[in-house]
Amino acid sequence: MELLSIQTGKPEKTPAKTGPTGHFKKPVDGPVAIHRLGLDGDAICDLKNHGGVDQAVYLFGTPDLEWWTKELGRETPPGFFGENLVISDLDTSSLAIGDILTIGDVTLQITAPRIPCATYAAHIGDGRAIKQFYAAERPGAYARVLKEGSVSKGMKVDLASYDGDRITVVDYMRAYRTKFKDEDFLRRVLALPAPQKLHAIAKERLGI
Q1: pLDDT one-digit tens code per residue, 116-143
Q2: Are 64 and 93 in contact (CB under 8 A)?
Q3: Cα(27)–Cα(199) distance, rounded to whole angstroms?
Q4: What secondary structure, in 3-state letters, does 142-190 show?
Q5: pLDDT of residue 179
Q6: CA R_g for the chain
Q7: How far apart are CA 157 and CA 119, in angstroms?
Q8: Best label site of 65, 66, 108, 202, fewest CB within 10 Å?
Q9: Looking at residue 22, what is its pLDDT?
Q10: Strand, coil or helix: what is 100?
Q11: In sequence order, what are the residues at sequence separation of 6 or more whose Cβ sits closer than 8 angstroms to the Cβ of residue 178?
């Protein structure tokens, strides 16, 4: 696999009444430094729902963008979904919590799916956008940064599957939609390198 493009965003106004957003990301020339909280120059405006160590980098693959181009009937250039990195031949729907991506000196670990929000819906301009995003089950994937470094377009990307219980980003999204009512799911995530917020939810629901 290959890193095809790198995107960062500056604070911009949005049609949604959600304040400024860094969703609208544009390609940038590398090398770009990636640190524990994300890419240099990438604005995270809604810190309650985005960013942080468990959502430092947002990934999409070319199969995702190609699928969405057909589904939406419009162009979906790099950054269209707010993704930081576009990687060739990476089907993010099959990624699981704990999977590792290596790009040069940078090591990323998959943590969660993207959850659609009002900013995304306003960007798409369709009242059905959020339901459509859930139904598509092609949410892209967030990752934490295990090893910092710099990346450039054209770099090789290696994927190593998590050696343990596999909960995919789609499994996570389905559990989110049911408000994490599945206790078996919650017990399983406690043994995984899942986001801290998800661990906290699991412990509270299970009375741990």
Answers
A1: 877 787 778 777 889 999 999 999 999 9
A2: yes
A3: 34
A4: EEEEEECEEECCCCEEEEECCCCCCCEHHHHHHHHHCCCCCHHHHHHHC
A5: 94
A6: 16
A7: 30
A8: 66
A9: 60
A10: strand
A11: none
